Amino acid sequence: MSTDEAAVALGRSFHQALVARDWDGIRALLQDDATWTLPGDNTISGTADGADAVVERAKQIASYGVDFKLLHLLVSRDNVALSLHNTARREDAVLDEHLATVCRLRDGKIASIETYLSDVPGMNAFFV
C-alpha cells in the first residue's frame, strides 16, 4: 500500500470509528502521545494531551449528538485531513459548521490532530 493509500485508509478509519462511537477503534489509531487541538472558548476547546484524552474529547463531542458528514479525505506527502460538515441541534442551539481535521501521522498512526473551523462563534455557542 502506498503512503497516500495508507493515509487515506487511516483517515477513513478515524471517521468510521467516530461515527460508530467506537472509542477503542479510535484509540488504536493513535500514538500514545497524540494531541487534539480545537479553537474557540468552550467545553471542547484547547488541546487534549495523550491518546486517552483525545478519545475523551471525541466522546465529549459525540455526546452532543453531532453528525459527522465526511465530504473529502485530503492527503499531503505525509499526512491526511478530513473535510467534514458537522451538524447538530439542541432546543436552544444549532451547530452547522464546515471543518478540516488535519491529522499528522507518525509510524502509521495519528500523532496529532488540529481542527480548523468555519464558524468558531457558532461552535462556542453550541458547546457550552
Automatic annotation (TrEMBL):
It holds the Pfam family SnoaL_2. This is Nuclear transport factor 2 family protein. Residues 12-112 form the SnoaL-like domain. It comes from Streptomyces huasconensis. CDD domains: NTF2_like.
